[in-house]
């Protein structure tokens, strides 16, 4: 059962997203690195340090087989990620902006090579828990998740320094399509008859429409055979911010048009595409 929908191959986009990020960072004034971002307690320097951590962690684990930090006793995945991310960001305070930019520029091709060597339909290096917790993720979804991570953090920096960009449809559309893979999981507690569908539409140049369909006792991403029982429609900016909690569920609903089964629209607008 292909519960995650068709393959999204974002691998050609990593160099372009990274170049946009590096160009942005090189244009920043020293004071810009201390500007606060939407990430609680993190300024621009911290967000860039976190991106650098992601590069190094995935290369170390995926290329070199390095296990990395160990879970503490009874530590949950969100707690583990919060702790290890904070540890690296704190250590990265010792790095100059220039050095961090150079490291991103240097390590990026190594990460690109790692993704290029993966079978997209093979097993993920890291499962995507916000898409499903009971079935393994395919490699393409893991790689697409990493692309969304880098793109979103770049947007958070851009918001902080008031320099929009990297939001053309070719760079942004795969982010929205990947986040739509969280829709079935958002609906998991809603039991409905076989074939029931929920439509999610993101409007705008990078937008699209996706459907979660009830099949064999679970929600999957697919094509409905009947008119959706519920529909959620919001603009593309509100959608990616909802998925990453850059805005609250309540704020997203204020930006959305919700029709049909209210329980299904309520569940769909809790969609979350980050670990929290």
UniProtKB/TrEMBL annotation:
<feature type="domain" description="Mycothiol-dependent maleylpyruvate isomerase metal-binding">
    <location>
        <begin position="16"/>
        <end position="157"/>
    </location>
</feature>
<dbReference type="InterPro" id="IPR034660">
    <property type="entry name" value="DinB/YfiT-like"/>
</dbReference>
<dbReference type="GO" id="GO:0046872">
    <property type="term" value="F:metal ion binding"/>
</dbReference>
<dbReference type="Pfam" id="PF11716">
    <property type="entry name" value="MDMPI_N"/>
</dbReference>
<dbReference type="InterPro" id="IPR024344">
    <property type="entry name" value="MDMPI_metal-binding"/>
</dbReference>
<protein>
    <submittedName>
        <fullName>Uncharacterized protein (TIGR03083 family)</fullName>
    </submittedName>
</protein>
<dbReference type="InterPro" id="IPR017517">
    <property type="entry name" value="Maleyloyr_isom"/>
</dbReference>
């Amino acid at each position: 059962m292909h519960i995650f929908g068709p393959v999204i191959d974002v691998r050609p986009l990593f160099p372009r997203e990274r170049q946009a990020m590096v160009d942005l960072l090189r244009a920043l004034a020293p004071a810009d690195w201390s500007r606060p971002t939407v990430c609680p307690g993190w300024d621009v320097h911290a967000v860039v340090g976190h991106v650098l951590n992601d590069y190094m962690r995935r290369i170390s684990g995926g290329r070199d087989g390095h296990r990395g930090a160990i879970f503490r006793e009874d530590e949950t995945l969100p707690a583990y990620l919060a702790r290890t991310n904070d540890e690296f960001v704190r250590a990265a305070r010792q790095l100059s902006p220039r050095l961090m930019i150079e490291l991103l520029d240097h390590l990026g091709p190594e990460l690109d090579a790692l993704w290029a060597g993966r079978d997209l339909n093979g097993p993920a290096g890291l499962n995507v828990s916000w898409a499903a917790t009971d079935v393994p993720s395919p490699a393409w979804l893991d790689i697409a998740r990493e692309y969304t991570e880098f793109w979103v953090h770049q947007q958070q920096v851009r918001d902080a320094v008031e320099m929009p960009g990297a939001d053309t449809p070719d760079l942004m559309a795969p982010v929205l399509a990947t986040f739509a893979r969280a829709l079935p999981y958002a609906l998991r507690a809603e039991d409905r008859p076989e074939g029931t569908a929920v439509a999610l539409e993101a409007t705008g140049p990078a937008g699209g429409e996706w459907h979660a369909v009830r099949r064999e006792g679970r929600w999957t991403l697919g094509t409905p055979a009947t008119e959706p029982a519920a529909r959620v429609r919001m603009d593309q900016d509100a959608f990616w911010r909802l998925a990453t909690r850059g805005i609250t569920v309540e704020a997203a609903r204020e930006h959305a048009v919700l029709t049909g089964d209210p329980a299904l629209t309520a569940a769909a607008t809790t969609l979350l595409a980050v670990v929290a």
